[in-house]
Amino acid sequence: MKALTRIGSLMAAAVVAVVGISTQQAAPAPAADPYQVLVFSKTAGFRHDSIPTGIQTIRDLGTANGFTVTATEDSNVFTTSQLANYKAVVFLSTTGDVLNASQQTAFESYINGGGGYVGVHAAADTEYSWPYYGQLVGAWFNSHPAIQQVTARVEDRNHPSTAHLGTTWVRTDELYNYSTNPRPNVRVLINLDESTYSGGNMGDHPIAWYHAQGSGRSFYTGFGHTIQSYSEQAFRQHLLGGIQYAAGAGSTPPVTQIEGEAFSSQSGVQVAPHGGASGGRTLGYIDNGDWAGYSQVSTAGRTSFSARISSGGAGGTLRIRSGSATGTVLGTVAVPVTGGWDNFQTISATLTASGSGPLFLTFSGGSGSLFDVDSFTLQ
Question: For residues 144 and 177, is the Cβ–Cβ distance under 8 A?
Answer without folding.
Answer: yes
